[in-house]
Amino acid sequence: MTAARNASRDGWKTLGRRWLTFNFVGALGIGVQLAALAALTALGLGYLAATVLAVEAAVLHNFLWHERLTWRDRATPLVRQILGRLLRFHMANGAISLIGNLVVMRLLVGALHLPVLGANLGAIAACAALNFVVSDRLVFVTADGSAQD
């Protein structure tokens, strides 16, 4: 095989591993989000307000694990760069998750009257692929601003 073909194959392996890790972290984040949503609605908070807070809890959880696991090869020890990533993560993934969850929840719960937790799983799944691409290409970039591994 040529060097270019090997590099391409290694790139796909890295991307595949990263996608699996992203989904593992996301599955843990689903647990955080659903637990927060269940607790907040049980306390009497409306489902949309509870969704906002539950999504925020999951976004913070997922950022910490993505920084340490999913994109650990792009890690930086500089607090300023980590805070920049957190801001980008909130602006991108947080916005995608929050808007996507609210739109899908309004449709599935508000219009179709589906159960809150089941509807939320659908909302999370709807946002996953876009969140991965945005994270890989815009959030967890290297110090020189590239997304190259």
Which features characterize this protein?
mainly alpha, 0% strand, 81% helix, 4 helices
Reported for the largest beta sheet, the result is:
none
Fraction of residues in H or I helices: over 70%
Instruction: Supply the helix-strand structural class.
Output: mainly alpha
Strand content: under 5%
Radius of gyration: 17 Å
Number of domains: 1
Measured between the Cα atoms of the first and last residue, the distance is 21 Å
Shape: elongated
Extended strand count: 0
Instruction: List the uncertain runs.
Output: none
Compressed to H and E, one letter per element, the order equals HHHH
Q: What is the overall pLDDT average?
A: 88
Supply the number of helical segments: 4
Write the layout of secondary structure elements.
Blueprint: H1 3-42, H2 47-70, H3 79-111, H4 116-139
Helix pairs in contact: 1-2, 1-4, 2-3, 3-4
What does it look like?
- By secondary structure, the protein is mainly alpha-helical.
- The chain has one domain (3-139).
- It has helices at 3-42, 47-70, 79-111, 116-139.
- The longest helix has 40 residues, at 3-42.
- It is elongated and about 55 Å long.
Could you write a compact summary of the structure shown?
The protein is an all-alpha fold. The protein has 4 helices and no strands. The chain has one domain (3-139).
